[in-house]
From TrEMBL:
Gene Ontology terms for molecular function: dihydrolipoyl dehydrogenase (NADH) activity; flavin adenine dinucleotide binding
EC top class, as a word: oxidoreductase
EC number(s) recorded for this UniProt protein: 1.8.1.4
Disulfide bonds: 41-46
Organism the protein comes from: Curtobacterium luteum
Protein name: Dihydrolipoamide dehydrogenase
Pfam families, alphabetized: Pyr_redox_2, Pyr_redox_dim
Cofactor(s) demanded: FAD
Details of cofactor binding: Binds 1 FAD per subunit.
Residues that, per the record, bind NAD(+): 175-182, 262
Domain FAD/NAD(P)-binding intervals: 4-313
UniProt entry keywords in alphabetical sequence: FAD, Flavoprotein, NAD, Nucleotide-binding, Oxidoreductase
Amino acid sequence: MTDYDLIVIGAGAVGENVADYAHKRGLSVAIVEAELVGGECSYWACMPSKALLRSGHALEAAKRLDGAAQAVTGSLDVARVLARRNSFTSDWKDDGQVAWLESADIALIRGRARITGAKTIEVDGETHTARAAVAVVTGSLHTLPDVPGLAEAAPWGTREATSAQQVPESLLVIGGGVSGSELATAWASLGAKVTLVARHGLLGGMEPFAGELVADALRARGVDVRTGVNPVRVDRDEHGLVTTTLDDGEVVITSEVLAATGRRAHTADLGLETVGLEPGAWLDVDDTMLVHGTDWLYAVGDVNHRVLLTHQGKYQARAAGEAIAARHQGTPLHTEPWGAHVATADHAAAPQVTFTDPEVASVGLTEAKAREQGIDVRTVEYELGNVAGAALQADGYTGRANLVVDESRGVVVGATFVGQDVAEMLHAATIAVVGEVPIDRLWHAVPAYPTMNEVWLRLLETYGRPA
């Protein structure tokens, strides 16, 4: 039996942050990992997917500039793109991440953890107890839609799609969410003939114009985007080809099929039933990430199903790590909105970038979500291509921006930008939403000229200056 103040189950980016912040406050910490230290984001999600996308983005950006376009005489060097992607995963080796844990004085326990009781876990037959808390940071797993034959056809999930070492001749992507849209963009840029099918439009849950602009761009690059259709049967033949029958009667034959249709909690084999919780369920938490009905169990990141984004999970981790330490040490706990020990931004101020081309950068509430919450909102939009800085960024720049304004308070509660290179514009909007900066004060935040940030001025002009 080995005792620590805190035991963290899951050594991904979020788990590492829980452990680090608690340890910095004086707690002894162990972290348990069954696979690679660094987790999904480092090896199969954020980093490799963006590495796959970046070269194609850079090439397309060059083609949109007269003078630079004439210098583009070839296509992507696929082998080098894949090699660069591999470098960002350290070739799926975690030596560097393990070295960081050692430097941070956080104990690493290799193996699969199972909760056996309050503050108690077992790893490979050895029992470990926590004096303060156990934090579950096991993330989420991709799901397969219930389509006859799909599982037997050995489809790609997001892991296979971000780690593949060869470009398939053709690829069917099932799902028009963030992962499906990004991976369709990536593999099309690398030369695959891509078909994307989505039950509804692309990027559901975002402002409608975001999915529309991304779908238009994918089609312009040769991706066969089909919305309003579902696969009803999938078969892989003896030659490896995949035949997918759609509910409109069409048949698509591809080299590979990627299911990018959702995530589920990674808690099925965690032993939750030993402490009265449902195996396989998302874990319901308060704003300090404490699981409801317990005083020792925390759930941080995807596993609590609040916001399934790495950066938001790391934000939760900072709050949780310090809250665990404060409770254990008996120091003041700051749980008021925007306090040091809560993740208030999860509710209405989470930023997200979808790295398609055009990019989609958004924060806070869409107009539809704001109205669902009963907020009296007014939304203003502006074409990014009409901004001087955007016109300089790319010839024929196509993009759009909007602000969602809470009329009763005179503050921005949501913003969305769609266009080339808009990701780097997002943090200003995030600060405006989190800081609840009044519209009349935003008039004094002067955007530098000529940059794309001038769209802020144009949006404010469209909204109208307060009397």
